[in-house]
Amino acid sequence: MQDDFHYYATYCAAIISGYSHEESLEICYSAELVDHCSRTLLSKIRAPLAAATTQLQSELMDARTDILEIQNITRIWASFHFLPFDLRAKLKHRSALYMNKYRLICNTNSDLLVDTVHLAGGGSLQAAGIAMHILADTWAHRYFAGTPSLVINNVNSYCYELISDEEKHRERAVTFHHNPVLSDDVYKGYYSNSVYQVRENSIMNLGHGRAGHLPDYSFIRYKYLPAWGEYAEIIKDNPSDYYHAFCQMIYAMKVLRGTYPIFEKEKYDTKAVTPWEDEIHEILTRRRLNASKDWKEFGERLSGHTIEDFDLGKFQEEYGNADKKLRDNTFLGKFCLAAMAQKSMVTNQIYKSGNMLAGFSVDYDKFGFKGIKDFMKLVENEKRGS
Amino acid sequence: MSKVQKVTNVLTGLFMLLCSGIMILFPEIGSHLIIIILSAALLVYSLRLLFYYFVMARHMVGGKAVLYRGIIIFDLAIFTTLMAEIPQIYVMLYLLGCYLFSGVIDTFNALEAKRLGTPLWRAKLGLGVFSMVTSIVCLFFIRSTNIFVYIYCGGLISSACIRIANAFRKTAIAYVR
Fold it and tell me: Does residue B71 sit at the A interface (CB-CB below 8 Å)?
């Protein structure tokens, strides 16, 4: 997903769920920030590096593929962009190495999603924004894993776009190229993707890299053979998935606001969307690379306020100028705390399932504080809270 | 990192340091040792590919390609290992090419880091420029075995140090309920 959904559509969902304009802006800013909060950014503003929620292309190209780096990559991508569906999935005649990767495949309505929404409950608006990013990505990134893996994430040449125009349905083979400078051509069907690399842990095999940006476009419908699917075809209907994501975000934010007591799987607030259903479907199905303009116009009509564009530098000065002890109370400070709490929770769940791909997790209540120092902030925050 | 992985990393690092020490002390045998290491690396890589196929890739759509690749590289590795003499100049050009390429990549990364405002860009740029200058300077001394061995050892030593340092890094994540 891109800024059109993470920023503008999240704003719309927040308004519909009952948040004010200012609160909705904070939520959608945090949801979008998840795609920008890299170690590079954090080192620039001197924030804890463990709060990274994404990795820039330059960071990924620089990354080694040893066990520590794989764990770091998996912690970031599985926690924030490819939330695992079933950490204890079982398949016959598969090695443990294979199953560790297979169990990280992302899908919607997982136990971890419930944990994610509940973790954000009672927390900051930044935590709500992060949770909405993760929730939305479970729809866009389903069937891919947030760890480098050829055997899970590879997409071969069997990939066809399903096009419906003037009541005609046709299939068009997707042509992939590897030139990052060329933008995708939605009319000719030329899309960029990552280069085929036979190394299992190559960075090229992370997430949906091999499927290019197809999962990021709301209008597209396509079919392909997922590497893990034993030659069974999958039809990916993005307009439908994105619509479900939108309705589920509204429901989740109503839970965070206290309208509903707990977050339950497979619940979507379609009723709240009914007055704008046709308009939302139209935005989702229009062919173009980015739907920000339409979502923005829709959001401004919903709230009656102007939605400012996303500005990465907006809160950096506030964070930089704040006293060190008070930094956690700034916008970015709260974002970092929420990000580390999410990363810590997902890493713990993966670790407890016997999978070491996200690294070690040490339960503070049982063993005291051990490991990466940045996470001490979570302990301090907990003490402040209690 | 588990205890076994830590121990393996430290031992591998120490072995790499030992090899580099031997090559620096006896550069005349160093070039042959490098060729042996490169051939062995190819052999290990092919065996890893075959292992990867049987453990993981056979369940993947199109996974047979991994098997074929493994067999071909295994064949190539055996062929390379059996070759009595590889002209040293080709091995040197290969190594210098790799070094120059890594320098260019480091420089590009540094420029990208500078654009993004990260304070680490100077160190990256320094490393990139150093690699490029070293490889270009070495081209003028391509007939010198010693320089060729020293460059290779430099890379080996830095890799060994990174491995050992990684084994002692704190990497666990605290979980606060």
Answer: no
Same domain flag for A268 and A378: yes
Contact with chain A for residue B57, Cβ under 8 A: yes
Does B174 sit within 8 Å of A379, measured CB to CB?
yes
Q: Do residues A25 and A134 share a domain?
A: yes
Closest chain B residue to A348 measured between Cα atoms?
Answer: B175
Considering chain B, what is the average pLDDT of its residues?
82
Which amino acid is it at A61? Answer: M
Mean pLDDT score, B12-27: 87
B28-59: per-residue pLDDT in tens? 777 777 777 778 888 999 999 999 999 999 99
Of A212, A237, A262, which residue is a domain's last?
A237
- Annotate B26-83 with DSSP letters as a single string: -HHHHHHHHHHHHHHHHHHHHHHHHHHHHHTGGGSTTTHHHHHHHHHHHHHHHHHHH-
Q: Report the number of distinct structural domains present in chain A.
A: 2
Q: What are phi and psi of A278, to 5 degrees?
A: -65, -40
**ipTM here:** 0.82
Look at B174 and A375 and tell me if their CB atoms are within 8 Å: yes
Burial A200-234 (b: 16+ CB within 10 A, else e): bbbbbbbbbbbbbbbbbbbbbbbbbbbbbeeeeee
User: Are A233 and A243 found together in one domain?
Assistant: no
State yes or no: pLDDT of B84 exceeds 60: no
Angstroms from A283 CA to nearest CA on chain B = 33
Residues in chain A with CB shorter than 8 Å from the CB of B59 are 94, 98, 151, 228, 230
Which residues on A lie below 8 Å from B113 (Cβ)?
Answer: 40, 58
List of residues 6+ apart from A90 with CB closer than 8 A? A99
Residue of A nearest to B45 (CA): A199
pLDDT at A143 over 80: yes
Residue A150 C-alpha, separation from nearest chain B C-alpha, in angstroms: 8
User: pLDDT digit string (tens) for A239-295?
Assistant: 999 999 999 999 999 999 999 999 999 999 999 999 999 999 999 999 999 999 999
Choice between A380 and B91, residue whose per-residue pLDDT is larger: A380
Same domain, A337 and A370: yes
B172 → closest Cβ in A101, A360, A376: A360
In this structure, the answer to whether residues A162 and A101 fall within a common structural domain is no
Using pLDDT thresholds of 50, 70 and 90, give the confidence band for residue B103.
Answer: confident
A228 backbone dihedrals φ, ψ, rounded to 5°: -90, -5
Whether residue A120 sits in one domain with residue A7: yes
Confidence of residue A221 (pLDDT cuts 50, 70, 90): very high
Query: Touching check for B113 and chain A: CB below 8 Å?
Result: yes
Give the minimum alpha-carbon distance from A16 to chain B in angstroms, rounded to a whole number.
31
The verdict on B120 touching A (C-beta cutoff 8 Å) is: yes
Calpha distance B114→A374 (Å, rounded): 25
Q: Are residues A191 and A229 in the same domain?
A: yes
Determine the structural domain holding residue A54 and report its residue range. 3-147+239-385
Regarding whether A124 and A265 lie in a shared domain, the answer is: yes
> How close, in Å, is residue B89 to chain A by CA atoms?
29
